[in-house]
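Subject: Sanity check before I submit

Could someone independently write out the structure tokens for this chain? I want to compare against mine line by line before I put it in a report. The sequence has 130 residues.
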Amino acid sequence: MNVLLPYWLGVPERCFYQEFQLGIISALHEFGHRAFRFPFQKRAPVEREEAKLLVRLLTSARIDIVLDLACWGFGLSRFSLPAVNGPSEAVYDRFGIAYVAWLFDQPWNQQLIGAAASRHYALYPDLGHR
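---
Independent answer below. Compare away.
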């Protein structure tokens, strides 16, 4: 399985986010999966150049799923690609990719509803956060 992990560059140094993401990447590799880290500058809106790089990665790496730690990469899901026939589609829908938001705080503190994907899931490490 090819897993995309958006990585927000605005996270403060020495935060759980960096180490947790590296641990997830290591675990994915250990189980025989491929992990692709995608750095981005702003949570939303996505920068034009970053959108181009994301589409290039989705095209070349054949990503199966997006695992968005803390849901900080929601903005990457919000741009659409024009369709040849019919309406435009959200980028992950165009590529048939599931989007999983892994929430680390109360859901109202994270942009769970800001993500645009028809296959949209949420993980809660603390079931009291549902």
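---
OP: Matches mine. For the report I'm noting this point. The longest helix spans residues 16-30.
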